[in-house]
Predict the 3D structure of the following.
Amino acid sequence: MSSFCVEIETIDSDDALYLIEQLSTELAKRYEEDIDKGKAAFELSEMDMPGAAFVIARLDRQPIGCGAIRAFDEEGVAEVKRMFVIPTMRGRGISKQILAKLEDTARSFGYTATILETGTRQPEAMALYEKAGYKRCHCWGKYINSSWSICDRKQLV
């Protein structure tokens, strides 16, 4: 019998760094013109700030996915970042469980909403967020003029 879990972990573990690098590599391939090379305005140091958390999904203790939240510029809002599941594990509902853990964690920190940016070349991510209750909103910061950015928001209940 397999064991599966999604838990808050430190951002500087080998498993966290591996998953983040895998995501960045995949995004750099999907968005070749992106000058960030798939990093998506994410700094590891942001996970050391109040109201931030990084989660890893594991199957039989092996890292298979991740996600993060951090404080957004708007009071009471957390930004979802670095959602990723390794390709061989996709289609099993793992990303849904990662997102649920991030939203639960956001609620426990006192956030009342989550916000995120995803790209037009990530139809799987767009479908996940729509099914999870996210609604389109105005993009912000570096995403305002990006032709491939889509921004979504969800009120947490």
